[in-house]
Amino acid sequence: MTYDPSNIFARMLRGEIPCTKVYEDEHVLAFRDINPQAPTHILVIPREHVASLDAAADAAMVGRLALFAADLARKEGIAAHGYRVVMNTNRGAGQTVFHLHLHLLGGRDMGWPPG
Ligand code: AMP
After folding, report:
1. Among 54, 82, 99, 108, which one is most buried in terms of CB atoms within 10 A?
2. Best CA proximity match to 19, nearest among 6, 4, 32
3. Going by DSSP bridges, is the β-strand pair 28-32/83-86 parallel, antiparallel, or unpaired?
4. Is residue 99 flagged as an active site residue?
5. Which of 4, 16, 96, 100 to mutate to test the pocket of ligand 1 (most atoms within 8 A of CB)?
6. Is 10 helix (H, G, I), strand (E, B) or coil?
7. Could you read off the pLDDT of 13-56 as tens digits, one per residue?
8. In this structure, what are the phi and psi dihedrals at residue 5, rounded to the nearest 5 degrees?
């Protein structure tokens, strides 16, 4: 999928629209999901313009997102009980924003299989 720089997360990275920021550094931005599916629901996005996991090639960048989420889960106090990390990839899996992102969900028990 071609990357469209007018997507909502790219606009957040440029500071064009607000978000409830949790953390940012030179690599990633983390913010609260506007429609939370769990008591803690944070989105972690890279600064690089990559549409989805299906379009990702940078192992360091993808690994950084995962380890960043693990660190954030500890800081948010959801790690000991358990949390879920999700990357919806392409439309059939529910991806609606085509800038790579990781969902960090926790603060409640999770069912399996996911819907
Ligand atoms: P996905 O469906 O995996 O592409 O996830 C996109 C997520 O972005 C959804 O969980 C939305 O609730 C969330 N979202 C959309 N717009 C915003 C926004 N302005 N601020 C925070 N989260 C958003």
Report:
1. 99
2. 32
3. unpaired
4. no
5. 96
6. helix
7. 999 999 999 999 999 999 999 999 999 999 999 999 999 999 99
8. -70, 0
